[in-house]
Amino acid sequence: MISSDNGASEGQPAPAPDHATDRGASRPGSGPGSGPSPAVGLRDGATDPDPNGASAPVPALASSHAHAHAPEPASTHPSTSSPVADTTEVGSAAYPRDAAERDAAPQFVLPLVVRVEKAAPPPRTDALETAARAVLTLLCDERATAVDGAWAEAVRDWQDARIRKVVRRARGAEWRRACELPGITVSGAHTEVRVFPPVPLDGWPKELAKLQVSGTELDDPQPPVTPGPEVPVLWLNPELEMSAGKAMAQAGHAAQLAWWELADAQREAWRRADFALAVRVAAPEHWAALTRSGLPVVRDAGFTEIAPGSCTVVADHPIFRGRPWEL
After folding, report:
1. 3-class SS of residue 40
2. How crowded is residue 314: how many other Cβ atoms within 10 Å of its Cβ?
3. Domain range for 277
């Protein structure tokens, strides 16, 4: 379920340590007609799918275990090196940026707020999946994709620089105040996440700046079920310990990488399916092969919780496996 509304906001600087993650990657495109180009890859924070279109090995899931298990892939497809510059688009406008230009550009962050009530906190996996779906929902919203959309400039500037997402938590009156700001609320099975248009690093609305960003811990009361082969899967690194908030931001990064690699028709099919996806922990014995498979990989800048350059999530979509995708 998705709901959206508009409200007024007032900027206020946010503390520097509140960066949940920073993963720099190029942006192949976000608006209509901006599907992936073979000349544009993902940079600095991710590797791109096999440019030859080869099917990457995909592990299966075991619903009775905390980690996903699969046969060892017979082969992998190393990703190619990324180009020196990339092209970013909003509608029909293109903005060439190289890595140095992105670092020098004004930096923005995508705020997400998860509702965590004391009496009924959401399950961890559902929260991660809902956060990823919230990011995708914003990326396809006409306020972000239309050339004259209310959020188009902010989304363009955010994607032209380092890609940052910060997840905060709220309950009760805090949640109600957050919902009065312009944004989109996305509901999972037991989770509500509200995503807001990007804001400058030091320009958080006061209603969001005072929300807690660290220490968001959630558990799964039951092991997550096995998703079907038609469902995109975001594979978490089994060797990393991340708070729920950190993992939610990383899942959002992985979903965004997958989105960038899809053509318009494939994006529309995913949107019609309400951005169905699964987040699962990969089997430890298969994680290294996943990172070499040619699938998009999120690499963290290491500002919080984990070491710089850590691979956190691999984005696996049926399209990347060379299979028809229908839901």
Report:
1. coil
2. 28
3. 2-7+17-321
* Tokens matching residue 10: 């007032």
Which of 252, 223, 249, 276 is closest to 61 using CA atoms? 223
Decide if 179 is inside a domain: yes
- What's this model's pTM, rounded to 2 decimal places? 0.75
DSSP state of 285: G
Provide CB contacts within 8 A for 196, sequence distance 6+. Answer: 110, 111, 112, 113, 181, 182, 183, 205, 208
Q: Is residue 12 part of a domain?
A: no
Within 8 A by CB and 6+ apart from 222, the residues are none
CA dist., res. 220 & res. 238, Å (int)? 16
pLDDT digits (tens, 9 = 90+) for 28-63: 444 433 443 322 222 233 333 322 222 233 333 332
Going by the DSSP 8-state scheme, the letter that residue 303 receives in this structure is S
Tally of domains within the chain? 1
Give yes or no for a contact between 155 and 260, defined as CB atoms under 8 angstroms apart. Answer: no
Alpha helices in the chain (DSSP H): 99-104, 124-140, 142-145, 152-160, 172-178, 206-209, 244-260, 264-272, 287-291
